[in-house]
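Hi P.,

Sorry for the delay on this. The queue was packed all week, but I finally got your sequence through. Input first:
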Amino acid sequence: MRIHRGNGRASIPALALSMVLCLTSAAPAAAVTLLRDADIEYGLYILAFPILRAAGLSPTNTRILVVDDDSLNAFVVDHRAIYLHAGLIQKVSSARVLQAVIAHEAAHISNGHIARRITNLKSAQTAAGLGFALAALAAAAGGGEAAAGLGSLTASLATRSFLAHTRAEESAADRSAAAYLQFAGVDPAGLIELHQTFQAQESLNISRKDPYSTSHPLTSDRVRAAQDYVARYDNIAGPNVEFKYWFARIKGKLSAFRRAPKWTRRRVEAEKFRDVREMRLAVAWHRESDMARALAALDAALAERPDDPYYYDLRGQILMENRRTKPAIDAYRRAAELDPGNALIQGGLGRALLADGQPQAALDPLERARMGDYRNAFVLRDLGQAYAHLGRHGMAALASAERYALMGQAFDALRHARRAMALLPEGSAAWRRAEDVLVSAERLTKGKK
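Then the structure:
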């Protein structure tokens, strides 16, 4: 598992806010920290596949990504990815609840809510000026008091109008989610349990809360509505062992990396799946720098699932972080043989080859990783190093420009893009990539020093 500082937004309101601010100050987008792991992302793909298909979305083109945040949240900013907070994954109690989250966010994409909200915000800005737009966004993000402070009475009324649209979209997303779950063969009762989970987290007295100061309906209302939606469907979904297994594996690996190793060891005996139990122990021992025990536990997991690419990927990570590059290369190569299209595994193989002093051999898997997943800043860093070692300074500058652009560091992206364009053949594919970064970075840095 690796932590990536990537260009993203924590919510739809934050996305719109960054767009509004760009009109006046060219502020770069906020960044979120992603937890990237081939094992976890494959498990989320398994859970999401039937739901995304039911929503009319491509399961291969709509990624499910994990945000390194303990809060209970999930969001979408475009049609390419659904973001789940790590805290949400660890809090929910079953696969069907997590699938209900995915179904709700998929509904926002399928129902066109993202583009509609941005259009509503543009209209709001035209009608009431930037001050109102900021007030509406503050309220939509959950800061009702901030909105009251920013807006006049007219702005307050307009804010309520904007949020009414948002709440209607949330209710519509819940209705669509129930239908997707039913069509996908997933128990839609997970939607009720999801809202009950959020209801238990509410700390503010509902009687004191203005239902028009938030972008979502009150949780108690959503629980009742979800009960009505679910009552309309016959629950034909039987137990799905595969969903249970991958849910346990996702939660197990996530907690093993995020919780204290002693916490993992105290609770691991309750794990029903033996290979998941051994994997969790492997991570716990690795985090305590006991490589021998970590590899022994991982060997036990592989004995249960000998052709599992993600356990070989974890083996490569453990060996790499213990500076055992040659056996790490062997582990990553085996993982890549078992899942050749996985960009994260290819990135791990390229990183191991680069660390072993083989920059030329590292280029192929690193380029495969870049083409398969543009969000991976570590791959772009490693690519830059590999090209620099080989004396290909134009390509090294391009990789650095793209990495800084991904991280939201516009000035650094601009500097490296200019260098890349000066060194690369004009009009070549690489030169055009550098030009794309240059144009975007210039737009963000215009008028700034």
